[in-house]
Amino acid sequence: MLPEPPIFKETHIDGFGDVEFLDGPTEKLWKQWYDQIAAEGWSSDDVSMRTTTPILPSTRCVFARRKDTGDFLGTVTWNEYDGYTFIGIFLVLAEMRGKASKALEPRLVSQLTPEEFEKLLEFDRFVTGRDRSQFLRLHYGLEVTEGAVLFGDDRKVVAVASVGPTDRPEDHNWKVAPIYANNLETAATLAIIVANWAGAQDEKARILLPILDDTRGAEELATVLKKHIVPHVVGITLYNGDYSNPIRLEHLYVPHNNSGHFDA
Fold it and tell me: Which InterPro entries match (predicted)?
């Protein structure tokens, strides 16, 4: 009997009720995993794969299941060997496909309701440790700036990015800043949205990302983009004494770096 795996996330999906995400399998989930793959009719996989995968020591997996019945809803299953990770199975129950597509919903800041904008301000306070409300109302009130947010399944903002020009229109430089997010995927999603908005305003737009050392952006975003960017040192922050910055570095991909209300 397999031990009960830890639950790392819970959510609610209409038509399926409460859903649990498990860091590992149960015997029931492996059985339903086997049957579901067989029902898909994939010719690239066979009985050998379905039989050996659950017992191979190299197998890793996460599952989504109904909380009330424990039944299979989806999985990502992969194997790690020879220094590689091979993701072999990405499967969601057919009748569930598309049901959770709005769990992370992107929106332009200019399209937010007053109540939704307050949630943006709340998220900014959470990340920066400061109340920048007055500054942000002015910032997003400018015609030349735009932003994008992602709403989580609890309708709270979980990521934000902004963009605006840095120079004269003929210079075509647009700075994407800040980007506050909980992971690289959401950071990249919003960066693309606001960069596309800048491109719609200026077909020659050149996108600038002021990434700060010792932040998550330097660890993850700069690593992903290193083949596509030309790095330049653009500034150094000096302090005249000890300073403990309250910003949550684990959410900081790109700092705002606006002296109107400093963040990092």
Answer: Acyl/Acetyltrans_Enzymes (IPR052729)
